[in-house]
Amino acid sequence: MDPLKEIRWKQRFENFEKSFKLLEKYSQQEIQTELERAGIIQFFEMTFELAWKVLKDYLEAQGYEVKSPRDTIKLAFQIGLLEDGHVWIDALSSRNLTSHTYDEAVAEKLIGDIRKLYYPALKAIYQKLLEG
Questions:
Q1: Rounded to an integer, what distance in angstroms lies between the CA atom of residue 121 and that of residue 128?
Q2: Could you say which DSSP state residue 79 is in?
Q3: CA distance 52 to 84
Q4: What does the alpha-carbon distance between residue 126 and residue 128 come to, in Å, rounded to a whole number?
Q5: Cα(76)–Cα(123) distance, integer angstroms
Q6: Quick one: which of 86, 65, 68 has its CA closest to 77?
Q7: Where are the domains positioned within the chain?
Q8: Please, what is the Cα angle at 125 between 35 and 46, to 5 degrees?
Q9: Long-range contacts, 125-131 (Cβ 8 Å, 24+)
Q10: What is the pTM of this model?
Q11: Is domain 3-130 given the CATH code 1.20.120.330 in the classification?
């Protein structure tokens, strides 16, 4: 394992952890305002972005080569790092739709998916990477 790449993924993990903790804290609370809804969606977007990047850095530290978020997710699933590749691909698609959160129906569906699907998937990888 390349020591510099090892350091890089661990540093990125620290940022991911901070973002994940914010998503964890607020995504399970009752949403009462548009601002709260927008905040949870933003926390998801930020956490997901850091999650796939920390996965990319981790895989590269292990000697793999990946380029895109989709490639990273596929490889992480193939080697058993991710449990449900379909949820991660769906999360990637949802992350790409976050600019459409002005549409109330899209935003409500996204909040439901964050709570039921994406948060548990992010939690699983957080715990797996926390263990090293």
A1: 11
A2: T
A3: 14
A4: 6
A5: 15
A6: 86
A7: 3-130
A8: 30
A9: 125/51, 125/55, 125/81, 125/82, 126/16, 126/17, 126/20, 128/81, 129/13, 129/16, 129/54, 129/58, 130/13, 130/17
A10: 0.92
A11: yes
From CA 49, how far away is CA 128, in angstroms rounded? 17
Q: pLDDT digits over 7-52, tens only?
A: 999 999 999 999 999 999 999 899 988 899 989 999 999 999 999 9
Q: What angle do CA 81, 68, 111 make, to 5 degrees?
A: 70
Report residue 110: phi and psi, to 5°.
-65, -40
Let me know if 83 is exposed, middle or buried by CB neighbors in 10 A (0-12, 13-18, 19+). Answer: middle
> At 17, which amino acid appears?
E
- Least Cα distance to 73 among 47, 52, 95, 43 occurs for 52
Instruction: Please report where in the chains the tokens 């790449």 appear, as a residue.
Output: 5
**Amino acid in position 106:** V
